[in-house]
Amino acid sequence: MESVGVPRMPCCPSSPVFVNAFIYLYAYRSSPQCPDSCHCAWDTATVQCSDAGLREIPEGIPAETVTLHLERNYIRNIPESAFSNLVHLRNLYLSHNRIDSLASGALRHLGPELRLLDLSHNQLKQANREEFGSTHAKTRLYHNPWHCDCALQELMESLNLEPETVNGIICESSVRGVGQSLVKLLDSGVNFCSLQRKTTDVAMLVTMFVWFFMVIVYVVYYVRQNQAEARRHLEYLKSLPSPRKTPTETDTLSTGF
């Protein structure tokens, strides 16, 4: 008997082109999306958004990001939740932007793995410890128009400033030492916190003196007004005609004589 051949199902192609296409498609579907105007290198977990014309922190930055480049854009501020999901971030570059404000706790959400924070070449004038949180990253803050005061002094003392750039933190405005390096001023013994307390004490004394003077003026004015009212009242009483005697009183006086 002749055997009847059983038809076989065609097997999947095993060519290298098909395998590579399958791997690429799988990797594309499993990889996180890259933000618009940015380039992502998944092998190094680097997101490159430099020179992208950005005016704010882009949304959708992958949570696995280790290095984030945002240099040379037009970013003006950093909202509080900008980096809240980037727990693996180690390097954050924000230099050469127009950042002039940080939301309260804007950098507080950066994880303990952060090693470098670059905020140089921006428009920052004031900052405090609450905005930076407890980061121990090496920090660059030079080339900003800083206003040197007690809050900035306390921030400098709490940050791990990059030694090579620390002298570039210049006081553009201040009660003392305008145009000089903040670190050099602090090293020379200048204490902005004590200056602020002295200024506050003087302002309080001036305020108390003005308040006391106003009270004295009011009391003197009140007393003089009362005296004037009393004099007018006496003059009015004197101007009244004296009361005449009644007939009964006249008869009684005549009978007595």
From TrEMBL:
Record-linked PANTHER family: ANTIGEN BSP, PUTATIVE-RELATED, LEUCINE-RICH REPEAT-CONTAINING PROTEIN 15-LIKE
Membrane-crossing segments per the record: 202-223
Keywords linked to the UniProt accession: Leucine-rich repeat, Membrane, Repeat, Signal, Transmembrane, Transmembrane helix
Organism of derivation: Seriola lalandi dorsalis
A Gene Ontology term for the protein's cellular component: plasma membrane
Highest taxon listed in the record's lineage: Eukaryota
Domain LRRNT: 33-67
Protein name: LRRNT domain-containing protein
UniProt xrefs under InterPro entries: Leu-rich_rpt (IPR001611), Leu-rich_rpt_typical-subtyp (IPR003591), LRR_dom_sf (IPR032675), LRR_TM_domain-containing (IPR050541), LRRNT (IPR000372)
